[in-house]
Structures are given as structure tokens and as C-alpha cells.
Amino acid sequence: MDNRRKVLNLIGLATKAGKTASGEFSTEKAVKTGKASLVIVSEEASDNTKKMFTNMCTYYKVPLMVFGEKEELGRAMGKEMRASLAVLDEGFAKAVGKQMKLIGGSEHESE
User: Fold this and answer.
1) 99 lies in a domain?
2) What is the number of domains present in the chain?
3) Span 26-53, pLDDT tens digits
4) Confidence (pTM)
5) Which of 21, 38, 40, 78 could form a disulfide with 30 if both were Cys (CB 3.0 to 4.6 A apart)?
6) Are the C-beta atoms of 2 and 100 separated by less than 8 Å?
7) CA 47 to CA 75: how far, in whole Å?
8) 111 is a domain residue
9) Vertex 57 angle, CA 3 and 83, to 5°
10) What's the confidence (pLDDT) of residue 109?
């Protein structure tokens, strides 16, 4: 199984465990309330969306990754297309981060 698939599977598992929030509004709320351990924004998201989440995640010190197509992310969560999602569990966030490093996905660490 390739690493992209593993990332999507982890997102699916986190969703089943009730440990994700998706869609712009819910993702933003998760970041601002300190619940987000990781934010994933689709490669297909608009520049505005990417910029908004990059700024927000930098400010709130939440790691952000740009990964996947909207349909891919949505399907992993058993939903329609998703441009953004937050992982609400440190364990899942670390596991996803580890797979991302293996793929060489773009990760913006917040200092």
C-alpha cells in the first residue's frame, strides 16, 4: 500500500473515531478553539483558502499540510468533496505527519 493511500486510510479511521472536522467553517472552528492537531488543505483548494488556513495555522501554531484532491479527501471521510479538514487527535495527527514525510508532502511546521 502506498503512503498516499495510508494517509487517506488514517483520515478515514480518524473520521470513524469522530476525530475529524471538515469543511471550511468546522475546520476554522477547530483551529480557533484549540481542538485541531493538524489541518489538511486540498491541493485543489483555492489560493484564498490555502492562504487563509496558512495564516490561521501559523497564528494558532497548528501544523498544516497541503495534500490530496478534494474528491479524494471527501471519499476518505465518507463525504462529498472536501477542501479542508482538521484532525482532532494528536495520535492520528502524528501518524498522518509521519506518512506525509515519507511521501515528501508539503508540510508547513509552525514555529
Assistant:
1) yes
2) 1
3) 999 999 999 999 999 999 999 999 999 9
4) 0.91
5) 21
6) no
7) 22
8) no
9) 55
10) 46
